[in-house]
Prior knowledge:
It comes from Liparis tanakae. The chain has 91 residues and is mainly α. The chain has helices at residues 6-18, 35-40, 75-86.
Amino acid sequence: MAPGGRGHQRLVTGLRSRLQLKTDFLLSRPPGGGASLHALLSRYDWSEHKPEIRSRTLTDLPGPLLTSDLQSCDPHRLLEWLGAVDAHVGW
């Protein structure tokens, strides 16, 4: 089924008539402007979001042991720990 072909068009039309699809995209604006991006998005309802940057110093917080052998801490365990710290779990 090639994009733009008869079968593809039937499928897209059928999906659009039965499903109200909504998708969010995160786009980065090029430095020095975004006029080209503005023109591309003019047909759509969109908003610009500014990232929130915050920092804090945590003391007396037990953390995973990291050594140079890369076997001391499983990457999944480290990411799980970071998520728990960010969500204030266990405080």
